[in-house]
Amino acid sequence: MGNEGSYVxxxxxxWNAQIDRADKLFGGLSSEDILREIAPGRxxxxxxxxxxxxxHDAMLPLLWLGERLHPEFDVxxxxxxxxxxxxxxxxxxxxxxxxxxxxxxxxGFEKMxxxxxxxxxxAVSEEDFAKDASRNRFAILLSRTNHxxxxxxxAVLGRK
Length: 160
Description:
With about 160 residues, the chain is mainly α. Helix content is about 65%, strand content about 0%.
């Protein structure tokens, strides 16, 4: 394995560490705890968890790993702010979706070689990728790991 493979292995290690942190944090919350706001007037923990689930679900087609499993989460957790609509997915629905989506991502990641990671993602055209090869699948992994870490920092505030 050359440097490229080492970078990918490190990126995946960081991703998995953040997923494990999220599993521990969100998985240990009761149905009452999950409705707590991270600060007065701010997002609830359920909204953050659903948001992360929706963003991870969107990674499947972005990385050419398959179709989304829960596109319906976008309306509740991406397109609209928390508490702006009734009938969002329940604690248990978010838990199941989170587990399903991240299991599907892990399965896809296991099949990818380091050279797959430096290929373009589905949101960039071949022409644009030829101009900027940094718009690759590995960049998606890094940006989504950072996104997850950011929201986990917020979620820690809501646990108290």
